[in-house]
Amino acid sequence: MALRRRSIKDTRGEAALFRVRAMVGFALILLGLGVLVARYQYLQVQRHDEFALRSENNRVKPRAIPPARGLIFDRNGVLLADNVPAFRLEVVPEQVKDMPAMLAAVREVIPLDDGDIDAFRKQLKQNRRFDSVPLKLHLTEDDIARFAINRWRFPGLDVVPYLTRRYPYGALFAHVVGYVSRIDADDMARLDADRYKGTSHVGRSGLERSYEDMLHGEPGYELVEVNADGRVQRVLETHAPTPGKNLYLSIDVRVQKAANDAFEGRPGSSVAIDPRNGQVLAMVSVPSFDPNLFVNGISKADYTGYMNAEDKPLLNRALKSAYPPGSTVKPFLALGGLELGIRRPEDTVLSTGEFCIPGQQRCYRDDVRGGNGTVNMIRAIQLSTNTYFYKLALDMGIDRFANWMGSLGFGKKTGIDLLGEAEGILPSREWKATRSKYPWFQGETVIAGIGQGYWNVTALQLAHATATFAGHGTPYSPRLVMATAAVKERPTPLPNPPAGPSVIRKPNDWNVVNEGMEAVVYGVGGTAQQAGVFKGFPLRVAGKSGTAERFSRRSNEYDTNKNLAYLATRHRAWFIAYTPTDAPRIAVVAMLESGAWGAADAGPIVRKVMEAWLASTGGPVPPSNTPEGGPAVPSSVSELPEDTPVATPADLSAMPADSSSTAPPDDGGNP
Fold it and tell me: In what residue span(s) does the Penicillin-binding protein dimerisation domain sit (predicted)?
């Protein structure tokens, strides 16, 4: 057997191989360490600020602080819209794993109706997942206690304090002040998301909406430290929000209440304006509604009740409803006749009971059988003689008629600081051309002269025209807000200069028409004199009644039915007036949707408004001064609670004082 040859070990080669492998391994280790160091340097040096901020954000969260909404006061500092503390249940969506299950569980602890759930789901779609979303507003003490016991079951939910809107006088100011309600998707599309961060309500109607930008204010924020569960541990830093500005209205709560009570629940509206500056002293629409029901979401039953009510309480009749004005336009037409040189005060017209257009067989009747005989302008206003104004309108012609009445504000918005004002209808050739294929007829001019036909005016428009006349022709846009004030600042009056020059060129023209309107109240046969509307009133009053027919007549027969309830179903009753006649300080309009006669039915409403105004300027306070559903109306600012913010008379004194049918029935010769 041959012997194997033994190999000789290459020690030197193995050592060299080991050295190579060791160097490669060491190089790889150095490379790895270099990459690691470079990564550490990149993360901890170059991106230090970014990751430090991320780390801090995991511990510190910013939370928006919504601003306190500005308050609303009447002209004497009586609070009309307040902010009161309340609590709501909020949800942070990103901290809730199963939203449907959470909602079902919460309903076992806190009552949630379908409206709450629907509103919550709508806001979920428009908010970021880390933003808090209100689930239930205005929690009761029992709700808060039950949730506190079950708090551990609901991560991402918390009870948060907030300020909610409250309207102490309820329905009394609902159509003027309006109300706020929860922000919805449509609101978010038009609102500044940054400015409304944390805000849950927005002005929905009335002054709350018109002055939303001023009332809302600017939001603030606070930095809070949270734990791993997202619960707030402490507040680190606070940047206070800027509260909204307070509004001071020209309305006097006592005059407003007197106007409201005078209707005794009958549908209608009334507006009172200071002719010296356009300030609205009262603005009432009857019936009204409770704005507090809308703040945190009105129930379906309540809303259905309002919507189905025959008397439409949600409708602002003073601002949005227009009706034929009847004979209330006659003084304005008479003034136009004088200003345009068509009539002289002494010119007379023979009223025989009917007026016929030359060349036509169809005649238009006076309201009084047999007419009023020979009347001049003053007598025609006093007796409301249709024939006089039929002829005047015909002589004036529809084009001059429309131009003159338009200069008094008819057929267009008055410019009041409320949204949604109706324009009404001023009869004109142009207006008809856009709505009919037929030309303008002379008969339409004739009936326009007594406020019938195509005529439609709002109570606000008629009050504006009356105030313009009472102010000797100087027009002012009606204004509800007369001053504003930031927190801890004195109220700043809002300027309201005249909207234009006086529409009256000859002062004596005003005197003539004023004399006729005074004769309505005090002259024998005057409609208001017969009804005794202003008997015993301490100031001299000038006025005019109007009884507008709601249905066209079928014949020329006189209606001998004297049943007032029946007549009320056929007529709308108007009355306009101002006082004192030597230097008018208040002009008032009242309208009843169903009234037998203008003077007898709407006149007493005007008187009660004037009585309340007179008492508020220094006379005795009217009795029974507690609005339904609201606090007592103070007789003066001195009776307000000590902690009630008010504007003193000195604060507000800077507002300058100068700042196709036959003729319908009229109230000429009727009370």
Answer: 65-235
